Amino acid sequence: MHKKRYQYLTLLIAATFMSFVWSAELGSQEPAPPPDSGPQSAAPEKQSGPGTDPATDNPSGNKEAASPDARAVNKKGGVPDTANYKIGEQDVVNITVWKEPQLSGPVVVRPDGKISVPLIDEVQAAGLTPMELQNVLLEKFRPFLAVPKVSVSMREINSRKVYVVGQVNHPGTVHINSNSTVLQVLTDAGGLRDYANPKKIYVMRTVNGKPVKYPFHYDAVLKGQHYEENIAVQPGDTIVVP
Question: What are phi and psi of 27, to 5 degrees?
Answer without folding.
Answer: -70, -25
